[in-house]
Amino acid sequence: MGIIWSLIVGAIIGVIAGAITGKGGSMGWIANIIAGLVGSALGQALLGSWGPSLAGMALVPSIIGAVILVAVVSFFLSRSN
Asked: Phi/psi at 58 (nearest 5 deg)?
């Protein structure tokens, strides 16, 4: 059940990051989950594990990391077109 919970929280973090950056409509569920999980790792590596936590992910640093990840990826994808 732990992996399922992590995937759900990762998807929610990815959806929030997509909504903040305005790129949520172009991302599918898989991309949201990946953005949430990778963004969570990035945010916690850069900012630490503070604030409320779900499924082992500190929510505030995770959302900030996911926003950074989505913004950087969308920047590079838009430049290649």
From this structure: -70, 120
Q: Taking a C-beta distance cutoff of 8 angstroms, is the pair 67, 39 a contact?
A: yes
Average pLDDT over all residues of the chain: 85
Tell whether the model's pLDDT for residue 58 goes beyond 70: yes
For residue 73, how many other CB atoms are within 10 A of its CB?
18
pTM of the predicted protein model: 0.84
Contacts of 5 (CB under 8 A, 6+ apart): 54, 55
3-class secondary structure, 28: coil
Q: What's the pLDDT tens digit per position in 10-19?
A: 888 888 888 8
> Rounded to whole angstroms, how far apart are CA atoms 14 and 43?
13
Pair 30, 9: CB distance under 8 Å: no
Whether the Cβ atoms of residue 60 and residue 51 lie closer than 8 Å to each other: yes
